[in-house]
């Protein structure tokens, strides 16, 4: 099996940063804030690179739809093993308007032109938590999908065997290629980019495409009414024993009798 794999990666506010809401409550503060690759996309990329190392894939290509700063994310992806990158570029001011449908449409155009066999994405982005890019893309391409993958294996005869964690245990399915896969948290542990690979990534090809050249309409499908901080948790208390706990619960109306 010699697959061409496209991996969607997104530039997001770093997971270790404490997010601050803008004073006008239209979004979160992003200026001057550390950004990095979406963690679930890192996992998707790692799995694609592992498949290449196992000779299941011949090429891994990183993809993003974003502003000029997204090139940093793509270079990082190539330092972690991607062979090349495709950047569908939009003005930095339009980044906040991008929704999963726009990303899925952009990937669809690229896949139809470049003829990929597998598209890997993270199960969700940590900024909007939409979890919609994979399913939308599968629908647009009319490809089978295997979402929330915790293990990916060669299924033989042009298929992949994918194990998914569900509430009741594990669900193992086979998907016929071409297919769309999304990566769950326990699929693997992403590697770090070494300095030599970071230097090599600077010389790897990065293709730029203007979103307008793909005919993508970036008009938002939804409107953010308000972004707010979660309510501050009230201080807890201590009880000496179970009878006192029951009494406290009765006082608050949580227990009757």
TrEMBL record:
InterPro entries: ETF_a/b_N, ETF_b, ETF_beta_N, Rossmann-like_a/b/a_fold
GO cellular component: mitochondrial matrix
GO biological process, one term: fatty acid beta-oxidation using acyl-CoA dehydrogenase
Domain called Electron transfer flavoprotein alpha/beta-subunit N-terminal: residue spans: 25-218
Keywords from the UniProt entry: Electron transport, Mitochondrion, Transport
Source domain of life: Eukaryota
Quaternary data: Heterodimer composed of ETFA and ETFB. Identified in a complex that contains ETFA, ETFB and ETFRF1. Interacts with ACADM. Heterodimer of an alpha and a beta subunit.
Family from the record: Belongs to the ETF beta-subunit/FixA family.
Listed name of the protein: Electron transfer flavoprotein subunit beta
Source organism per UniProt: Diploscapter pachys
